# Entry
Amino acid sequence: MDMKVDKKKLNLKDKYKLLTRDLGWEPSYHSKDEIYPYVKYEGLKVHDWDKWEDPFRLTMDAYWKYQAEKERKFYAIIDAHTQNNGHLNITDARYLTALKIFLQAISPGEYAAHRGFARVGREFAGVGTQVACQMQAIDEIRHAQTQIHAMSNYNRYYNGFHAFADARDRIWYTSVARSFFDDAMAAGPFEFMIAIGFSFEYVLTNLLFVPFMSGAAYNGDMATVTFGFSAQSDEARHMTLGLECIKFMLEQDPDNLPIVQEWIDKWFWRGFRVLGLVSTMMDYMLPKRVMSWREAWEIYGVENGGALFRDLARYGIRPPKGWDDAEKAIDHMSHQLMLGLYQWSFGTAFHSWIPSDEDMDWLSAKYPATFDKHYRPRWNHIKKLAAAGTPYKNFGLAKLCQCCQLPIVFTEPDDPTMLCNRETTYKGEKYHFCSDGCRDVFEREPEKYIQAWLPMPALFQEQQGDIGAWMAWVSLGDGVDNGDYAGSADQRNFQQWRGLATSNQ
Amino acid sequence: MPVTAIKEYVAVPRDQVANFHGKQLVYVSWDRHLLFAAPFLICLPPETPFRELVEGPLKALVSPDPDAAAIDWQRVEWLKSNQPWTPDFDASLAANGIGHKDQLRMCTAGLNSLAPAA
# Structure
């Protein structure tokens, strides 16, 4: 005879306790210091790990269900995109330049963030932290995978996508993002949380993902929009984890304040420099533009960032040291970097172009104080050189910043006609920087940055300056993956295929 | 504070001159001529005469600027490590005191076709 048994169900609170806090047991044959050797050396004082509050009270079993559902939706849309030739629905193939940079520079960063969170999840001594970091580690590897999948369809039809992993390790503009993540991964667990939880999730995610995904939508790239939606729902959780960690550090001991402030100063500036690539994408690379970099900065930098620092002010945190210099750079950075991307286009795995008159009118409307005065004359001259059959290529290679690794394209904060030349000598060796912010980062921990692998000097160390050998090494097809968009195979193919799809010719 | 670490931290600089196969890096930029997005990185043996640096790579690199042909090289004012400095065109880079990774800046007052009117 079947007995009717009451199905016992734990209430949410008990379940949460069992699946998180009860995972932390008291060690009996090793000391806590032996088990968690990395929690003290950064100087952070933690008195009570149980004060760590999990922002979302999410347990692993619930997490699996949410994420599995998201994966199903994501792959259904990606399959539909592939089967319906979604690559022909984008505005034009110039848009793909932004995607190529994203795939080469940012997706490997997601993977790096995964590795970092897996590590600090082990190194932090509190159970709440461990569980939250474990989830974020899985999120980050999922983001790397979904980004690669979303963009892989374009690789069947267009150039420049095929060797993103080589690009990540070897090309000059990707080393900007790579050095950011290498720096974070080589830091202690608390600094890592500021690097990723604050700088990447707060400073970068908003300014990267929101305009990037809007850009994708405006330009008809539904594959990218899909991964954006799939990732964005995790980002809110990540931002809260980062903020929670900052508050935890500050509430545990007043001695933590100066350490946290230094990290905020450092990682704000490092994050801001990575955004240089995003500013160029927004102002130049989207055939159909969403908003200017300046407008995005007003919303996500000034308003959102300002609110964050007002929130942290009660702990004694002030806005990051480079905040004013960042504001002064907003009207210049995209123009300065795009000029570089154009003149070094032989050394990129994407296309660049001279902005059209219409593009320049848009830029002049968005940047009334700077574009016509400083940048239009340069583009007009470059246009003249191209029309004369001698298009401008700068074969000089570029001096790179020892810290952010960007070419030193940025000008003095108060003088946009003068390049910012900062240098320092450490143990008899000279080092160069693009800004006071980057020099400050170096001078705080010089031993770390003197080891930086800088792609341009490396070209002379490892390939003796042979550009052809370098191109082979980075898997870059000269004239195929790089150079001007006008006349490229990407442009030709896109127009031809779109013509076939939309006419009866 | 050299670095925050759990034990002694020993770092080796990556870009020492010994790694450049008998050559050295020299950075050169032309003040207020921002057609060139960044200072040029040039790699030469230290025994190269300064004149050769100018006549060879430098003149070729600055040639796309509309002011390039008008440069009077004898009147260029130079900065080295942001300090005023006078080169000896016939002496080598080494004899001119141009070390590995030194930054030279050229100033040519009055030549600024692409710069905004003041």
Observations:
- DSSP finds 20 helices and four strands in chain A.
- The mean pLDDT of chain A is 92.
- Residues 222-252 of chain A form the longest helix (31 residues).
